[in-house]
């Protein structure tokens, strides 16, 4: 079995930012860098902190390549104790993509006192806002990582997002911690960002924040307990990135997206700064993709659709009726949304269109093999065409969002 050796160092780059640089040997992998928030100093990171980050970056790569992992630094004893459980979960979820591997590192038990700071990853989305607003009394910092959801080669989109996040941080009395990294260049060769690697990326950043005084780091849940399937960020795996010095918390899985929207719908910060769209980088939200449409309809159900300043134009259903039925989780979300729309008089006609589509998918694929629905055939395409025609007529006759008094 080959061996993957990982080593990290903290230095100051030309702009004064402290950067953790991680290099790999034994397997040809890219050098990874993580720029810490302004004000962080290299001497704040111990050799064990560097070891923890090295383990976070190296473990999935080693499992992907079937290589023993050797970390050239000491590693938290608690973190090392979690490695077998993490590997057991990943190899059970993805038996054809991951192998259990030996991990070699000096085990260090520390009496580290957790820092008083509490941070949460924050992108301005529904999940982020829900976690922030429910934990507003304890959260002291918002974490934004350029290079995760927004590529580093889109400084315009990064700056646009930064302005919204700073406004939220100012309004909530929290600090905005801005990091940047090329970490995805490593994980793109290791597995799907959504299905496998984004949880590890978040956990690794949490490990890097621990020596900066953050004893708790929250990761907002993307799915509820009712929807749990193998996924990169998951309540079973996120907590395994905790150490003696930091507690990593998977937060908010008690509610589906619809429930979270109901919890945050009356918050003016949400109306002004919500950002959910990943389909484009030209503005906050496109307003018409599947995610935008679902989100807008749920806010409409809560009576505030007309207040959502970051969504352009009126609501259209054509993309939701097609691209919104890729897998069983999509069908679950569409079923919840259709049922909710049918209960409200002003959205009942939209609910009927979506409910008819859900019922069609249920009839066609009552027990799909796996989580992804099969590609559409001619019958499916004809049914979609009819559903879209009905939706276009409805959108012209009864546009949403509904504006009170109109």
List the topology elements.
Layout lengths: L2 E10 L5 E8 L6 E4 L11 H19 L2 E4 L3 E2 H17 L9 E2 L2 E2 L8 E5 L4 H9 L6 E6 L8 H18 L2 E7 L2 H4 L5 H17 L4 E7 L26 E5 L5 H8 L3 H6 L16 H12 L16 H6 L4 H16 L4 H17 L13 H20 L9
Parallel strand pairs: 1-4, 4-6, 5-7, 8-9, 8-11, 9-10, 11-12
Antiparallel strand pairs: 1-2, 2-3, 3-10
CATH architecture of the largest domain: 3-Layer(aba) Sandwich
Counting structural domains, the number is 3
CATH homologous superfamily of the largest domain? HUPs
Strand order of the largest sheet: 6-4-1-2-3-10-9-8-11-12
State which percent range the strand residues make up: 15-25%
Rounded Rg = 23 Å
* CATH fold-level label of the largest domain: Rossmann fold
The largest pleated sheet is described as: 10 strands, mixed
Note the quaternary state here: single chain
- CATH hierarchy, class of the largest domain: Alpha Beta
Low-confidence stretches: none
Structural description of this entry:
The chain has 406 residues and is of the alpha/beta class. It folds into three domains: 3-108, no CATH class; 117-251, Rossmann fold (3-Layer(aba) Sandwich), CATH 3.40.50.620; 276-397, no CATH class. Helix content is 42%, strand content 15%. It has helices at residues 47-65, 77-93, 126-134, 155-172, 184-187, 193-209, 257-264, 268-273, 290-301, 318-323, 328-343, 348-364, 378-397; strands at residues 3-12, 18-25, 32-35, 68-71, 75-76, 103-104, 107-108, 117-121, 141-146, 175-181, 214-220, 247-251. The strands form two sheets. It has a ten-stranded mixed sheet with strand order 6-4-1-2-3-10-9-8-11-12. A hairpin with a 6-residue loop joins strand 2 (18-25) and strand 3 (32-35). Helix 1 packs antiparallel against helix 6 (193-209), helix 3 (126-134) packs across helix 7 (257-264) and helix 9 (290-301) runs parallel beside helix 11 (328-343). The longest helix is centred in the last third of the chain and has 20 residues, at 378-397. It is globular and about 65 Å long. The termini are far apart.
